[in-house]
Amino acid sequence: MNATQNLLHSIEKTGVTFFQNFTHLKPGPGYGLTVDHTGDLSLSSIASTGFYLSSLVIGVAQGYLSYDHALTQAMGTLKTLLSLPHYHGFIAHFIHIPTGERYKKCEYSTIDTALALNGVITVDSYFANAELSALASQLLDRVDWDILIHNRGDKKQFYMAYNPDADGDYVHGKPGYIHHWSMLAEQLMMYVFYAADTANPALAKTLYQDFERHQVTYHSSTYFGSPGNSLFVYQYPQCWFDLKKISDEQGVQWFENTRQAIYGHYWLSRDTVSKYPSFASSYFGFTASYGRKGYQVSGAIPNVNDEIHHDGSVAINAMIGSLYHAPELALPAIESLAKRPDLWDENYGFLNAFSDENPLWRSSRMLGIDKGLELLMTNAYLHQDVMKAYMAHPRIQKGMQVLGWKNVR
After folding, report:
1. What is the pLDDT confidence band of residue 226, given thresholds at 50, 70 and 90?
2. Measured between alpha carbons, how far is residue 337 from residues 266, 280, 325, 328, 375 in Å?
3. pLDDT band at residue 407 using 50, 70 and 90 as cut-offs
4. Backbone dihedral region of 89: left (phi > 0), alpha (psi from -120 to 50 degrees) or beta?
5. What's the CATH architecture for 3-407?
6. CB-based contacts of 204: which residues, under 8 Å, 6+ apart?
7. Can you say how many angstroms the Cα of residue 146 is from the centroid of all Cα atoms in its chain?
8. Any idea where the domains of the chain sit in the sequence?
9. pLDDT value for 281
10. Over 80: is that where the pLDDT of 26 sits?
């Protein structure tokens, strides 16, 4: 095994360790909940928990965890998920781990619930245990996607979230349903989930076809871009979906779309290195992470405002998260990072982010979803343990079939 392979296996192993050590695995209402970030061990994100569940599959498949140990954790976590505050199956975005209660007045989130369910589907498929499958079915069956469907102009779309509180998160005016999945973002799995469950396949296809596909170009990269053009939105759903050579009925290949988006981010990083000198040494990516000025969601151009809002720090997850789709870009960046011991934690792998501008800055926090992206995409590149389990699940198979996603090999 060469040095690069050793490095990638270390990223994988430390990722599993991260989720074992930053998931609450003591008896109580918060069992199986993973922290949102390491700066607050009482706050869980259900999206982080979806990545944690998926890490159990990697742990067993690669010999980092025993089968029985991981199955016990998966079982307990699904029981917890069933007990958490929810609205028609959509779980509160943030949970107070000690009590299992909704954190303050956060929203009941569709995307964070979907990411958690990705983990549920992964463990259900991999462990093939009757009791676990019964719990997974309860979680999947109770989600009422139909309550989110509405007409927006001449389009059928899902609402993004629900918040009953007038002063709650993301509420601007009247409480209730919040915003629309009208654009390309990280929500692809929602359409597959709905297509697998609905008795109206025509509506499932309409929902999938009715979100905007706005083509953008940067250098030689042309792709359907999200309004903010943040890199993570292309990467997240494809931590689980293996869409190589998969095309929809309109000829869209989402794997290639993500690959082209990565290239667009790479070329912009090269073009702006004089403004953002930390992008030297082939580093790239405008995404969500901690930065030297706090948490930021940055995006590449073209975007809706054709502006870059970025503090110059480098998010390591952007590069590791590109391993499966553009290894020829990701590997040189990762190999360069590995030469810098100040960016590596011996227990948990690479830091979240850094800046080489004066004064030097290194992130003191790790974010669960960022570490999850790194772990799952490294596993996708090396072994595809998570992808194989996820793609084999009957709901994923059925949903893709209903939507007309087909192998074009």
Report:
1. very high
2. 16, 11, 19, 15, 16
3. very high
4. left
5. Alpha/alpha barrel (1.50)
6. 191, 194, 195, 198, 399, 402, 403
7. 23
8. 3-407
9. 84
10. yes
Q: Look at the block and give the residue holding tokens 């469907």.
A: 149
Burial per residue of 341-368, b for 16 or more beta-carbon CB atoms within 10 angstroms, e otherwise: eebbeeebbbbbbbbbeeeebebebbbb
Rounded Cα–Cα distance for residues 322 and 270 (Å): 16
Q: What does 111-150 look like in DSSP terms, one character per residue?
A: HHHHHHHHHHHHHHHHH--HHHHHHHHHHHHT--GGGGEE
Buried b (16+ CB within 10 A) or exposed e, 166-184: eebbebeeeeeebeebbbb
DSSP tag of 360: P
**DSSP one-letter string for 11-44:** HHHHHHHHHHHSB--SSSTTTTPBBSBTT-TTEE
Residue 386 Cα distances to 7, 60, 196, 209, angstroms: 20, 11, 20, 27
pLDDT tens column, 100-155? 999 999 999 999 999 999 999 999 999 999 999 999 999 999 999 999 999 999 99
Please tell me what DSSP assigns to residue 300.
Answer: P
* 86 secondary structure, DSSP code: E
For residue 209, name the pLDDT band (cuts at 50, 70, 90): very high
d(CA 220, CA 107): 39
Q: What is the pLDDT of residue 303?
A: 97
